[in-house]
Amino acid sequence: MRTMLLGGPGSGKGTQGQRLARHYGVPHIASGDLLRAEVRAGTDLGRQVAGCLDAGRLVPDELISDLMLPAVLSAAEAGGYILDGFPRSVAQAVSADAALAESGAGLQSVLFLAVAEQELVRRLLERAESAGRSDDTAEVIADRLRVFEAETRPLIEHYRAQRLLIEMAADQPADRVTEAILAALEARDGK
Ligand code: AMP
């Protein structure tokens, strides 16, 4: 299983990614989680990216590719991966596509979790109260949504053109979304 979750902030990528990883017995590789761990550990990379994370801006492509590609390649070798949050722009996708294809580790599907913007904002503000993430404030949420629209949404067409895209209505309870994803992946594998 080599798939990726694509969606705005608050679309449920993390929740669904963890569930899919458990279901398929492969790692959930979430770029945001890895970056936050670097910041917490106070590494050089963490210091370089902390400002971007706090502001909701994308960290430079080279840093994220260097962090993610080795993890994705070794997971692919061991049986697969559920990617979450990477690639996040067409430039990242083009270089990741090439690097992964070379090793037969490329994506087999891309799950787009479609959620209306109003609902994304509602979920993120709710999460702000419970999780205490530094980027879950009203101002930074607005910036992250803008970054999603400008940088990440074009990936929908990028992966549709490669016939990898599976669009899911993710404006529903998490359990329903998980069921729908598993059904869609099974239907696809059966083809
Ligand atoms: P997330 O947990 O996926 O919402 O990511 C949190 C933050 O990490 C983002 O707002 C960016 O600052 C950074 N980030 C995560 N993934 C990427 C990526 N693929 N490219 C650049 N920045 C990223």
In brief:
The chain has a five-stranded parallel β-sheet, with helices on both faces. Helix content is 62%, strand content 12%.
Structure commentary:
The structure is a single chain. Helix 1 packs across helix 9 (174-189) and helix 4 packs parallel to helix 5 (90-102). The mean pLDDT is 95. This protein has 191 residues and is α/β, with parallel strands linked by helices. It is built from nine helices and five strands. The longest helix is centred in the middle third of the chain and has 17 residues, at 61-77. The chain has one domain: P-loop containing nucleotide triphosphate hydrolases (Rossmann fold). The protein has helices spanning 13-24, 31-41, 44-55, 61-77, 90-102, 117-131, 138-152, 154-161, 174-189, and strands spanning 2-6, 28-30, 81-84, 109-114, 165-169. A five-stranded parallel β-sheet has the order 2-3-1-4-5, with helices on both faces. The two termini are 15 Å apart. Bound molecules: adenosine monophosphate. Residues 9, 31-32, 35, 52-53, 56-59, 64, 85-88, 92, 135, 144 line the site of adenosine monophosphate.
Rg computed from alpha carbons, rounded to a whole number of angstroms: 16 Å
SSE pattern: EHEHHHEHEHHHEH
Count of discrete alpha- or pi-helical segments spanning 4 or more residues: 9
The portion of residues assigned to helices is: 55-70%
Which ligands appear in the coordinates?
adenosine monophosphate
- Within the CATH hierarchy, at the fold level, what is the topology? Rossmann fold
Most strands sheet: 5 strands, parallel
**Corresponding CATH superfamily:** P-loop containing nucleotide triphosphate hydrolases
Number of domains: 1
Instruction: Assign the CATH architecture.
Output: 3-Layer(aba) Sandwich
Task: Average the pLDDT over all residues and give the rounded result.
Answer: 95
